[in-house]
Amino acid sequence: MRITFLLAAILAFSPLSVENARADSLDDILDASHRTSAEKARDSYRHPAETLRFFEVEADMTVVEVWPGSKGWYTAILAPYLHDNGTYYAAQFPPDSNIPFYQRSLIQFKTRLAKQDEIYNKVRITHLYPPAYNDIAPAGTADRVLTFRNVHNWAKSGKAEAAFKSFYKALKPGGVLGVVEHRAPEVRPLERQIETGYMSEGYVIALAEKAGFTLVDRSEINANPKDQTNHPAGVWTLPPSLRLGDKDQETYEAIGESDRMTFKFIKPEDPAQ
User: Fold this and answer.
1) What is the pLDDT at residue 272?
2) What is the domain-level CATH number for residue 147?
3) Predicted confidence (pLDDT) at residue 36 exceeds the cutoff of 50
4) Residue 200 and residue 229 in one domain
5) Of 9, 43, 75, 113, which has the fewest CB atoms closer than 10 Å, so is most exposed?
6) Which residue segment(s) compose the domain that 220 sits in?
7) In this predicted structure, which of 1-15, 95-109, 123-137, 242-256 has the lowest mean pLDDT?
8) What pLDDT is attached to residue 270?
9) 4: pLDDT strictly greater than 60
10) How does pLDDT run across 9-26, given as a tens digit for each residue?
11) Is 108 within the bounds of a domain?
């Protein structure tokens, strides 16, 4: 009997148990009431728990999310997860932009944070829009830099290379860059990639490697074999955008969200490597 209790005590305080406790905490956040029903409806396509575990995000880390958008879909997960023991940076759109979309998005994002201050009161807002805004966090301080479905935007604006350099600068040596992006066939020309919002894996890997990163792992967590990536309004044809409105809506909803690559890059401990 004593052996049984002793074994139970050892297991209770083992690293595996601690890891499971953190996993349970993340799962609790996904079910929490501060996330809207519309946000939770996207979980089956975006696999947030599996994705963050793949990127090895821990609750005591310094994490930068780049361009979380107006609604902050991942902010609603990362901010509470990192609230007590970690640090969360939201690298947002430029504050002085003359682009209406950026202006509206930043206002909407800040409004959401203010409405639930007890959850978001530790969010640190920075900005990314090279060349004026390059510092998404103090240099060499981030454990993780994450970006979800944004590479096509930087490619379109000609800022992709500069953005990846900013990611590299912010990360600690050994830190991880996690990238999720809509996936195009490798044969698709870059101009067509930008037009459709689907980028090739080769393009993203080349961007990261040029900035100094090393690809260490990839996952099919966010793959969608139903998505043939050849829709009339590009990736925005699919949910949640449904840019064509009622036209063939059932067809596109049956496909679901886009097919996506999920890459884990590392900033080498020794930059010479």
Assistant:
1) 57
2) 3.40.50.150
3) yes
4) yes
5) 9
6) 36-266
7) 1-15
8) 76
9) no
10) 444 433 333 333 333 489
11) yes
Instruction: Centre a 10 Å sphere on the Cβ of residue 32 and count the other Cβ atoms it contains.
Output: 13
Using alpha carbons, select from 120, 126, 29 the residue that is nearest to residue 77: 29
- Token pair, residue 27, equals 């799962």
Given the structure tokens 């807002």, which residue do they identify? 125
- Token look-up 């090393």 returns 214
Whether residue 134 is contained in a domain is answered as yes
| DSSP-assigned beta bridge partners for residue 171 | 142
In the chain, the number of structural domains is 2
Residue 34 tokens, joined: 């501060």
Residues 76 and 173 in one domain: yes
Measured between alpha carbons, how far is 65 from 85 in angstroms, rounded to an integer? 17
| Predicted structure pTM score | 0.90
Q: What's the token pair of residue 93?
A: 């759109």
